[in-house]
Fold:
Amino acid sequence: MIYDNISGLLLLDKPSNITSFKVVHKIKRVLNVKKVGHCGTLDPAATGLLLILVGKATKLQDKFMKEDKVYVSSFLLGVTTDSGDLDGKVISKNDFSNIDIKMIMRVTELFKGEIFQIPPMYSALKRNGRKFYEFARCGVEIKREPRKVIIKEFDVLSYNKDNIKVRIECSSGTYIRTLAQDFGNVLKCGATVKTLRRERVGAFNVKDALDFEDADDTDKIIRKLIPFDELFEFAEASHLYIK
Structure:
């Protein structure tokens, strides 16, 4: 049976080592609905809040994609990779013994506000119908133009030897892997993302999300699903305009 009448937004806590596409496919299969989509890809290694739209709510995808995000991430100093995280090939290892917390705090200030990023090759952006990461896996480099993003908050939560834990509030379109790479370049030792977790998208918080282990249970999914009509209340709370 196809349940065309099921429409709404599901907050789901994505675990690591699974793609956002596979999460969406699973929800589509369990609910047995025709249309399911998500609002912003999380890398396979990343965890946290994934917004999944079901049924006619998929028409609102562009609206929710534009919302600000909050991430908690760990940057590994002294290492650079081709992907910007530990899933990639190590390009270099560098000395970071001269780095201290004062230097780190000064550098975070440089990235607050409007900045420009060059999107990574290992991303879901497309050129001629193919995703950038497909080109990257074939060893093909695509020219990318810098994009303006906004870093609203960039707070250091902890620092221990080669590991910096940070909390970042940013505009849609921000790549944390690119931020880590640029951060490491300024420190002149290199850096890459070790862990990444998305905690918030607009007014939605991962604390309210469905655990992925419950994603096989249709009843639990439906109980967590925010009905289409109620999305307007959330839109108002997060200053979205839904027509």
